[in-house]
Structures are given as C-alpha cells and as structure tokens.
Design goal:
Elements (H helix, E strand, L loop, with lengths): L1 H41 L7 H10 L1 H30 L2 H8 L17 H30 L5 H38 L10 H18 L2 H10 L5 H6 L1 H15 L5 H25 L8
C-alpha cells in the first residue's frame, strides 16, 4: 500500500517538480550569464604595445589559432543570421522592388528583362541588400564580441553603445542615397545626350543596391572617427591638416564605388563623403581627450 501511495504521490507531484527543476535551470543559466557579463565589463585587459603583442603571437602560435577559431565561430553565426534575414526578405521581394523602382518614371513596369536568368539575379540582389540591412545590428554585435576581449573596459562600453548608432547611420546613408542621390542621378543617366534608355532589372538594381550599400557604409565614417578619437588613436588637428590627402582618397573611393564613369555621379558620391569628413573632424574634436590645464 505504501508503495502504491508513494507512486501516486510521485505521479501527482511530477508536474510541479518539473516546473521547479525547469525554473532552477533557467535561473541558474541567467545567473551564470549575469556573472559572465559583469566580469566581461569589469575586467581590465593588460595594455601592451603592438610590437609586444605581435612578438607574443609569433612565440605562441596556438593563441593565434584560438583567435582564428573564435573569429570563425563569430563569422559563422553572422552568416547564419544574414541567411535568415535574406530568406525573410525574399518573401517580400515584390514590394521591395516596387519601392526601389519608384525613382523611375514608370516604376517597376518600366523595367524590361532581356535575359532568361535576369529576374533571378535581380531577386537575389534585392533580397541580399535587404537582408544585410536587417542583419546589420547582429553582424556588428558579433564583430564587437570578437574584438571586445582585447579592449579596455571603457572601449568595450563605447563599442557596445556604438552598435545601434552604427545601425542608424547605415540606414540613414541608404535613405540619403535613395531620396537624394537617385532622383538626381537617374534623369541624367537615362537621358544622357538625348538618348532614351530603357532600364533593365539587372543593371538598374545593381546600380541602386551598390549606391545604397556603399553610401550606407560611408556614413559609418564619422562614428569610426569619433570612437578612434575617444580612444586617443586619432587627432582632430591632424585630420584637419590632412584634408588634401583626404579629398584625393575620397575621389579614388568615389571612382571605385560609382557604377558609372561620368563626373556627375562621381560628384554625387564625393560630396556627401567630403561633408562626412568635415563632420568627422568636428566629432573628433569633441571626443578627443582634452589636455589638462596648466597648473
């Protein structure tokens, strides 16, 4: 009889015991993660010169392999996230393409495909750009998680808070390219020398996605300069003095980024980058450590 009652009691209390064990497991997991996060942001790494760090890496190659393995894991997770967001964007391809083709006079109906595989490449380009924009915060987080252990506590916090700002800058750059640059560039390109051009989906989407992507990346430059100045790696005065070299570099980047060779579209890429460079100098001046006042 006792065995029967004990078995009945175990059966009746099994759901409650399962809930308690599950709660203890979840609470233990959160406690461990909380301790890991606290130690991650409280530990201060040893500040070693770059030369000493390189010598240490050559003397102990196994440590370098560990870093490469960690980088592989972070990149693998970032690629998985990008694949998921790209697949998600694939289901909304039609409204996204309609949005991208609005700067054209006839919209999506003005695009004419002349190759059998052309629509497939167009779908993949649009889905990949949208997927990258959606996955950008997570990709930036994975990169931050890789480099954060080698940074100081202050630099880790700056890097973590920079992720949402970097996402906003990237989306802002894409919006600038879409709302400002495309309406200016397309009429010039489609009616150059009085020649009426019928845009193909592959060439048009390649032009639009390339411009939006690279302008979005270019908008990250002020944030990068701000963080480097905050950490003491760059100086606002040096940036201001080297403006001539900066314009030459911007011109080279503009020529590489611009899908066409005409100076109009190259200027459309260069002008915002020059403005961003000037804005970066202002941010560097604000962020750089101030020299102590003479006593």
């Amino acid at each position: 009889m006792r065995k029967a009652l004990r078995s009945l009691w175990r059966i009746l209390t099994a759901p409650f015991r399962f809930i308690v064990r599950l709660w203890c497991a979840i609470w233990g997991w959160f406690s461990r993660k909380n301790n890991e996060i606290r130690s991650f942001f409280s530990e201060e790494v040893e500040d070693a010169p770059v030369g000493d760090a390189l010598n240490k890496a050559f003397e102990n190659p196994s440590g370098l392999f560990e870093h490469l393995d960690a980088l592989r894991k972070h990149l693998f997770r970032a690629v998985i996230a990008l694949g998921l967001t790209t697949a998600f964007s694939f289901t909304f391809f039609t409204p996204i393409l309609e949005l991208l083709s609005r700067p054209l006079e006839g919209g999506m109906e003005s695009l004419v495909a002349i190759e059998v595989t052309e629509p497939i490449g167009t779908v993949m380009r649009v889905s990949l750009l949208t997927g990258f924009a959606l996955a950008f915060p997570y990709v930036a987080l994975e990169l931050w998680l890789f480099i954060a252990p080698g940074l100081s506590r202050k630099a880790r916090l700056y890097g973590l808070f920079a992720i949402p700002v970097a996402t906003a800058f990237f989306i802002g750059g894409m919006a600038f390219a879409y709302f400002v640059m495309l309406p200016t560039a397309l009429p010039f390109l489609l009616n150059f020398m009085g020649i009426n051009t019928i845009p193909r989906p592959s060439s048009y989407v390649k032009f639009v996605t390339s411009m939006m992507f690279w302008i979005g990346i270019a908008f990250e430059f002020p944030l990068v300069i701000f963080l480097l100045a905050k950490l003491g790696f760059v100086n606002a005065r040096v940036l201001a003095k080297q403006w001539r070299y900066a314009i030459v570099i911007i011109a080279v980047i503009g020529a590489l980024v611009t899908p066409t060779v005409d100076p109009v579209n190259m200027s459309l890429v260069m002008l915002p980058m020059i403005v961003l460079y000037g804005f970066s100098i202002i941010l560097a001046f604000i962020a750089q450590p101030k020299a102590p006042a003479p006593g």
